[in-house]
Amino acid sequence: MPIPFTKMHGIGNDYIYVDCFRNPMPHDPAGLSRRISDRHCGVGGDGLILICPSDKADARMRMFNADGSEAEMCGNGIRCVAKYVYDHGLIRKPTITVETGRGVLTLDLEVVAGSVHQVKVDMGEPILEGRLIPTSLPGNPPMNVPLPGHNLAVTCVSMGNPHCVIFVEEITDLLVHGTGPKVEVDPAFPRRTNVEFVRVNRPDDVTMRVWERGSGETMACGTGACAVAVASALTGRTQRRIAAHLRGGDLQLHWSESDNHVYMTGPATEVFHGTWPEN
């Protein structure tokens, strides 16, 4: 039976979305993600996101990377989930909740002419305890610590998924595509890690590129941008409110002192619809 899908992206971080409110759950979502995400033989995307009913929130998001591995959370993806459920009439509220692998998150929708334009996500508190990130590197969190076997100093943060933030003077293809995949699978990260390369432009402004666990370089990573905001503030490089420039566009980040939560604001875009033959 063909599977209806919608292609969406959050500043270039693109996923294929399946509405499991109105359609059956795919019987093999990991395999489907590998096939449908292929940019030559499939639809093309950074992975697959299932939009499902939830008994804890307005909706549930399940995310699969392009290699079929299931991940806990995607900051750009969850903004697209919010846009989908509002624009397609599943949930017509200005504030919604979405169940994810890191818990239930709250999203505030900016609606323009009946359609969601951008979304502010309460991404919750950063996880700073090394064993929970998880990493075997020293410190809670590890800050500016050497990564054995690499000529690198790294800062590690979890936003429900692990991130290794590396501050550099210049972000190069060699770093992203040469160093990124090696750090992703380094033994210091038992569940692998996302890798962010960051140049600080001003105390309120950074530029970054991301090697994403299970997907390779992506145009953007919402949880990665949140991790960068936390790591930049912790190491004294920036303020707690910053703009992050990613390859696909910009995100506004705020690590609030009042509740310790990280807030991320950015756009969500619907690209096209189609059907995929499940076999």
List the helices and strands and how they pair.
Layout: E1 2-10, E2 13-19, H1 29-37, E3 47-52, E4 59-65, E5 70-71, H2 75-87, E6 95-100, E7 103-112, E8 115-122, E9 145-146, E10 153-158, E11 162-167, H3 173-184, E12 194-202, E13 205-212, E14 216-218, H4 222-234, E15 241-246, E16 249-255, E17 262-267, E18 269-277
Parallel strand pairs: 2-3, 4-6, 11-12, 13-15
Antiparallel strand pairs: 1-2, 1-18, 3-4, 4-5, 6-7, 7-8, 8-17, 9-10, 10-11, 12-13, 13-14, 15-16, 16-17
Concise summary:
This protein has helices spanning 29-37, 75-87, 173-184, 222-234; strands spanning 2-10, 13-19, 47-52, 59-65, 70-71, 95-100, 103-112, 115-122, 145-146, 153-158, 162-167, 194-202, 205-212, 216-218, 241-246, 249-255, 262-267, 269-277.
Name some characteristics of this structure.
279 residues; alpha+beta; Diaminopimelate Epimerase, Chain A, domain 1; 18-stranded mixed β-sheet; 4 helices; 18 strands; globular
Description:
With about 280 residues, the protein is α+β, with helices and mostly antiparallel strands. It folds into two domains: about 1-120 and about 265-275, Diaminopimelate Epimerase, Chain A, domain 1 (Roll), CATH 3.10.310; about 130-260, Roll (Diaminopimelate Epimerase, Chain A, domain 1). Helices cover about 15% and strands about 40% of the residues. It has an 18-stranded mixed β-sheet that branches. It starts with a strand and ends with a strand.
SSE ordering: EEHEEEHEEEEEEHEEEHEEEE
- Give the total of domains: 2
Helix content: 10-25%
Structural Rg: 18 Å
CATH superfamily of the largest domain: Diaminopimelate Epimerase, Chain A, domain 1
Please give the largest β-sheet: 18 strands, mixed
Q: Give the DSSP E fraction (strand runs of 2 or more residues).
A: 35-45%
Which architecture of the largest domain does the CATH hierarchy give at level 2? Roll
Report the structural category: alpha+beta
Q: Measure the end-to-end span.
A: 8 Å
Q: Mean pLDDT across all residues, rounded?
A: 97
CATH topology (level 3) name of the largest domain: Diaminopimelate Epimerase, Chain A, domain 1
What's the total number of strands? 18
Shape: globular
Uncertain segments are none
What is the class of the largest domain in the CATH system? Alpha Beta
